Amino acid sequence: MTVEEMIGALDVLLDKQDYAGARALLYESLRSFQTAGDVPAAISTCNELMGFERQYGEDGAAITAAEEALRLLEERDMAVSRPAATVTLNAATVYAKAGRPAEARALYDRAETLFYKYYPAGAAEFAGLYNNRASVYLSPAEFPKAEYYYTRALQLLERRGEVCDAAVTHLNLAGLYARWPERAAEAPLHTAQAVRLMDLPADRRNAYYHYTCRKCAAACRELGEDTAAAFFTGRANEHEAGD
Predict the structure, then answer these.
(1) What's the Cα-to-Cα distance from 172 to each of 49, 150, 223, rounded to whole Å?
(2) pTM value?
(3) Which one of 49, 160, 208, 242 has the largest count of C-beta atoms within 10 Å of its C-beta?
(4) For residue 182, which phi and psi values (nearest 5 degrees)?
(5) All residues at 6 or more sequence positions from 105 whose CB lies less than 8 Å from its CB, including other chains
(6) Selecting from 1.20.1560.10, 3.40.605.10, 3.40.1190.20, 1.25.40.10, what CATH number does the domain 1-119 have?
């Protein structure tokens, strides 16, 4: 099985919500690639495992996958390469979610250096870097840094017309401002903008749109924005109803 075939099979299992099958596929593929000495494929599989375990599993398993991916990059002399940029970013996000901000920041620093080296200015990938990097600035003294990165992500996404990801970034800013007393009045403005962006006609509501609506609904519930949460929940449920 190639990496491309593995990812295709993984998508089918995730669509069916067969998380046990997806986990088994990923770990079996990793063992197979490692046995065959296919290091690039093993790195790609670890990258998929990071995302899977971060979303559906446990932080410990995600960290193990991140450590293995970073080890393989070093072993193959790929730590400074285009593929390493995305892997390092994903590893940083794993550590951030696990509540290990110091390690996350060091990896985000490394990832940002790699992105500037291997991606053109304004590339879509920078939005993910900025959004994820902002999330590690948790103390009030660091809120301006978080705002800086979220704003950079939002500007890039708006220039590129990436409506769904721009809506998520507006809600990231809303969450930041809700914790920032001096800026709290701005939080509802960003929530409202996220709703406006996502109020798309039916012919523009694809699978990624519905996935984003689920994310937005959860964010709005955390913010106590019940009306916005109901809007996003309704749009997300259209997909399940066969919209």
Answers:
(1) 25, 7, 10
(2) 0.84
(3) 49
(4) -70, -15
(5) 92, 136
(6) 1.25.40.10
The pLDDT, as a whole number, for residue 243 is: 43
| Domain ranges, ordered by start, for the chain | 1-119, 121-243
Entry field: residues in the chain: 243
Same fold, 1-119 and 121-243: yes
- Token pair, residue 86, equals 């995305």
Alpha helices by DSSP H, the chain: 3-15, 19-36, 39-56, 59-75, 82-97, 101-118, 125-134, 143-160, 163-178, 187-198, 207-223, 226-240
> Model confidence over 188-209: pLDDT tens digits?
999 999 999 999 999 999 989 9
Token pair recorded at residue 198: 């996502």
Structure-token pair, residue 151: 């704003």
Residue pair 33/66 in contact (Cβ under 8 Å)? The answer is no
Structure tokens at 58: 């446990």
Enter the DSSP assignment of 76: T
CATH architecture of the domain 121-243 equals Alpha Horseshoe (1.25)
C-alpha torsion sign, points 22, 23, 24, 25:
positive
**Phi, psi dihedrals of residue 81, rounded to the nearest 5°:** -160, 165
Whole-angstrom Cα Rg for the chain: 19
